[in-house]
Automatic annotation (TrEMBL):
Pfam family, one: DUF4097
InterPro entries reported for this sequence: Toastrack_DUF4097
Lineage: Bacteria, Pseudomonadati, Bacteroidota, Cytophagia, Cytophagales
DUF4097 domain ranges (all copies): 128-231
Protein name, as recorded: DUF4097 domain-containing protein
Organism: Fulvivirga sedimenti
Length: 268
């Protein structure tokens, strides 16, 4: 039941206005028992998240401020130099083989790059000013964003991805059997590359785009749905806007939904 907590709160003073290297760094966090199942949770209010699977058995975290309004010399667009910046808040904890990395600061964003074991469950979430990138993970992945792209490569397991402004692009090496998955965005394409032997029952919807597939697709007919309004006694007919069908005979449900953008199903 060991719990490790590391809290970083840094107010950066730029000596000689030379930059902000003091606001960056790296940490290594061990798991309680590397032989048991492991999980990593990353939750940022502002910033990008990159998670890469490797053969290490701990978690290595690189962090740096977003500093989106300054150039490398700490100079703003109107020529002013920054003397001090808002504090960078980053809390890292480990308990029962779960590592949590959190930053609740809206003012001071932080970008993190994290190396984790290949076999790990992962939940990454960012709200503003950052994209999510995940690669080489063999486990269950959940990726949530409000204003950023979600990219996942070489995934062996399952994935749920949701964003509002940004494309979703995923490449699977292997699919976890009998596991439903969901992918949704409002503005952006959804682009999935799946193994040739993938079996799934697809449920897809796009309001202002096309659906394109490299797989043979068995389309299922959708019947109109009739509902009666008990107060007025009137009947209403609703047309099902979902495109439903099966790939390689069908399997667990894959839900793909966007508003502005295309949906791509590619065969690996």
């Amino acid at each position: 039941m060991k719990k490790l907590i590391i809290i970083l709160t840094i107010l950066v003073i730029s000596g000689g206005y030379s930059g902000f290297s003091q606001d960056s760094g790296e940490l290594v966090v061990p798991f309680s028992d590397p032989a048991k199942p492991k999980k990593v949770i990353v939750d940022l209010r502002r910033g990008s998240i990159e998670v890469v699977g490797s053969d290490r058995q701990d978690v290595k975290i690189y962090y740096e401020p977003t500093d989106s309004k300054m150039n490398e010399n700490g100079t703003s667009s109107d020529g002013l130099k920054r003397i001090a910046s808002a504090s960078l808040n980053l809390e890292i904890s480990e308990k029962d083989n779960t590592v949590e990395i959190e930053s609740d600061s809206w003012n001071k964003g932080v970008n993190v790059k994290i190396e984790v074991p290949y076999r790990v469950d992962l939940h990454v979430e960012s709200y503003n000013d950052g994209d999510l990138f995940v690669s080489n993970i063999k486990g269950e992945v959940v990726a949530d964003s409000q204003n950023g792209r979600i990219t996942a490569e070489n995934i062996s397991g399952s994935l749920i991805a949701d964003t509002y402004n940004g494309a979703i692009r995923v490449t699977f090496d292997e699919i976890k059997p009998d596991t439903p998955m969901a992918f949704s965005t409002y503005n952006g394409d959804i682009d999935l590359t799946l193994p040739a032997n993938f079996r799934g029952s697809m449920k897809m919807k796009t309001a202002r785009g096309d659906i394109l597939s490299g797989f043979d697709f068995t389309l299922e007919k959708s019947e109109p749905e009739t509902k009666k309004d008990t107060k007025s006694g009137t009947y209403k007919i609703y047309m099902d806007e979902w495109v439903r069908g099966k790939i390689n005979g069908g399997g667990p449900e894959f839900m793909l939904k966007n508003y502005n953008g295309n949906i791509y199903l590619r065969k690996k």
